[in-house]
Amino acid sequence: MNLDFDIKNNILIVSVNGEIDHHTSEEIRGEIEDKFYRMNAKNLIFDFSKTSFMDSSGIGMIIGRYKYVKNFGGKVCVARVNEKFDRIFKMSGLYKIINGYETIDEAIDGILGVVK
Prior knowledge:
The chain is α/β, with parallel strands linked by helices. 41% of the residues lie in helices and 28% in strands.
């Protein structure tokens, strides 16, 4: 598992490369919180285009980051979600609290409230 970070408009973009499971979710949580704080981010986008596997601890990690970011008045969303993860997110109810987008640019616009 490897994480790539980018920041645009106070939005931390996290690309998860590899697997999210009970072995990696705690490490991911810590790295995201550290970068979120150090980069002075307000919002968070998860990019799942390079994520190969996710178990229930991944859902828990996403919900935990949602609560963390919400405490700072920010928003969280997911982008570039494959069909399998999309189905899991729908079944878990994740989309009731977090929006999903096709692209990173759409996610940024969604967080910023840009209407096109």
